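Please check the following.

. . .
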Amino acid sequence: MARREVVAFVPMGPPYAGPEVSNSILLKPDRLPFNLHIINTSYQSSNAEKGKLTGRALLAWLRNLSRLVRTLATVGPDAFYYNLSATPLGLVKDFVVINLAGPFTARIVAHARGGHYHRLHRNAPLWVKSLALWTWNKCHRVLVQSEGLKGQFRGAVPDYKLGVVPNPAPEEFFHLRPDYSRRVVLFVGHRSVAKGWTTLLKVAPDLVKRFPDVRFVALGTEIEEETNITWVPKESVREVWEEYVVRRGLRDRFEIGENVFGEAKLRAYEGASIFVLPSYSEGFSMAVLEAMAAGLPVITTRVGALPEVLPEGTPFVEPGDARGLGDALTRLLSDEGLRRELGRRNRERARDFHEDRVREIFAQEMFKGV
């Protein structure tokens, strides 16, 4: 029997954020039971450019559409794989892409990588709701990242169309050996209000007073203006950094990195003893999953798939709750044994999402019901 053909029209990076990292791990042609033709839709030079409508962005998108049509016409795929957007502007792009792909394939599989798609069909303007319902229901399968995240499509997509493919935990992170005796707090994600970066900055001065040896490492692009998550507090990342770090003489306590990948990224995880991501919104955070696989204790929020993913005993905080975050960090910074135990539990749980296992689930979902 001939192998099936699949065309994937997805961001693979650079620049890299959660979707690009996840796609680059999941979509390995030599480890999937079908022929995979990938069109990398990434074109921005920085994560800060994402979600912005510019002439350059429009031109790049049109070029990608041209590549897509040529590939679809040449391959005649059995399935088309696509990552859904979670904003009104992205929804317009989804509408166009899915309409273009429809005549060339018998099956469209869309992956929702986020936790707030419900905002596009509940209490949204009529044109947004109508476009969302039409676009999503043109898909033969809509994949989410956890069972709980199916709920964001309730009333919009029939249950029989919904499937679950979580993010994949990369194999190399399971081999890391953190030094729990150190007090190094790692933050990985956009340095933005939405990711909770400013919340962490606000607790840093008190933590330094309590623990003179504590250090903070942050990997990610600074995002001053939110484009996707618009319901967060309106504050300036740069002003918070200036007030809580620079003016208090704490700049030397922070190590900031952008575009850190490969071996350097692994060393950052291995050099930490606590991972923190007090985000306002997540689907299934790749950074949290990497931290779990690395054996780090995690402090995060009850958003998206995270309450389903993290094991019992995880210290959750509320988005924007600086006092709660400070208390959780104080508890972990005070107790090496607790850091070690939570890290052990996290690594054990992360094995459920090992990249090989998730790739098998993905392959099954691509043609489920056929």
Summary: Residues 171-353 form a domain with the Rossmann fold fold (CATH 3.40.50.2000). The longest helix spans residues 55-75. The chain has a mean pLDDT of 94.
